[in-house]
């Protein structure tokens, strides 16, 4: 009984053996006869192949067209160029994914199993590229919420400069001394972002030291008049001149003025120089460290 069962299983396995070798041998021995015998099947395969190629070509053209249209619409709507390009590319490749699936279905390939394979491969690639995916996710968030944009002066990830470009994976800054700084988006998104250009105006703070025997009111009045004479200072927001500290050898007068963000550094540097000249002209003593040497004999 056992021998009969074994024989039956062997016969069953033999029946299940792939017939690809037999088909190949039949085609090699008599190609014309094989083609004649299977011409309907061959015509069907060739037809499906032609349709699949047509689907791919037309699908590629449609995907490229829709991506370009989306890019142009967003650009005309004054959406940032980086976001417009990204949206156009996303639409293009999303359409291509459906086109490839349709072409494979036309060829008789099971798209469900194909999608499962792609999903498994994507998971493996994703595990290997966790850092890049983190940069990608951060880049998408930066493009959506736009805490920074091209042309703004910012401090991100401990670096300062003018934003040149925000891509899906990196953010590029140009420092004040003309160095190009490329920062991964994950570092930008996970840290503190300081945007110096987003607001139209900024406050400039100054600290000036005058001697204890100087006329404080004269010093304050001189500094106020100096800032009032500067056309870049926004007078409507007020000018503050107060005594902020009593140091070891000087009284500190703190001044605050509001200016346009683009004028910040010019006003800051000019203000320090003009304050020195104005206080000297008003004969307000500016203290400096001195060393007294006593020679005891």
Structure description:
This protein has 297 residues and is an alpha+beta fold. It has three domains: 39-128, Orthogonal Bundle (Helix Hairpins); 148-195, SH3 type barrels (Roll); 201-281, Alpha-Beta Plaits (2-Layer Sandwich). It has helices at residues 2-15, 20-29, 31-37, 39-76, 81-106, 111-128, 130-145, 185-190, 216-228, 264-281, and strands at residues 153-156, 159-166, 170-174, 180-184, 193-195, 201-210, 240-246, 251-260. The strands form two sheets. Strands 4-3-2-1-5 form a five-stranded antiparallel sheet. Helix 2 crosses helix 3 (31-37) and helix 4 packs antiparallel against helix 5 (81-106). 14% of the residues are buried.
Key descriptive features of the protein:
297 residues, SH3 type barrels, Alpha-Beta Plaits, 5-stranded antiparallel beta sheet, 3-stranded antiparallel beta sheet, 10 helices, 8 strands, rod-shaped
